[in-house]
Amino acid sequence: DRARVRDDLRKEHQGIERKFHEYKGYLAEVHLSQVLLNGQNSTLPGKFFNSGRDVAVPRFTYVRHRVRPGSGRGREIDVLGAAGPDQWVCQSKWTVGKKAGTDVLRHLLSQAEFVREEKNPQTIRMWLFAHDGLTREAEDFAREHGILWSARPEFDALLRHLGLRTLPDLG
Fold this sequence. Notes:
The protein is an alpha/beta fold. It is built from four helices and seven strands, in the order H-E-E-E-E-E-H-E-H-E-H.
């Protein structure tokens, strides 16, 4: 009896942890959207995006969450913004205690390719929020492929810069 109760409690705890992890990711997605919307028609300092160049944010015709440009595994885009011939493909990885690697960036590249195939944009801008940042190899990969990225400190600074509320401390 006790073993079954312990097992049930463990499963319930795992389910709650999974839901909490999903909630953190969604919360970061909402903040990504707010940055795009509040930053429209402005040029933001590159330091917020780990870029040596400032980043021009266009006026978006739409910003959507959890877009599926096609069927199949891994096709859901966390945030997709359209600004005329330009598309922004944004991904959120709120993982604490582990830096994002090149696998996450390769996935973002493949999502951008889905958008390129479906919408034929003139330009695609890729941006990743990675809570604990990127591995050294991933930083090089991002630079090589023009991927913008923000770790928690840069992202919170960007939110403050735009007059938005920073991410909560959720661990």
